[in-house]
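Dear colleague,

Thank you for sharing your sequence with our group. We've completed the structure prediction you requested, and as agreed, I am returning the results in plain text so they can be pasted directly into your records. Please verify that the sequence below matches your submission; if there's any discrepancy, let me know and we will rerun it promptly.
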Amino acid sequence: MGGDTGNGFDKNPQNINKEGAPKKDWTWAGLIEKEADKEVDGVTKKEKVVEAVMDKAENGDVQAFRELSNRTDGAPKQSQTIDLKSEEIAQLAGAIRALAGKDD
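Please find the predicted structure tokens below.
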């Protein structure tokens, strides 16, 4: 391992970013947030977007409804079912052990 601490990190690196993470003013997220917070006629653009999406969902737009429900309730968890026989499981376990260098 490298560094002064033996774990790959120097205790006092000369190139450390003492200012922390860069501000997000210049990122897409920062620019969108800045624009979304601007007020037009006493209402933020963000509020206008929410209102527009709500109107679409109320009028039967399934994609708008899905977006609203994913944002409020969270996206549904996706699961996958694997149907294996015990012999197949044993073969897979053996292959994993071999890859890990723990061959029995």
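Summary note from our side: The chain has a mean pLDDT of 83.

Kind regards,
the structure core
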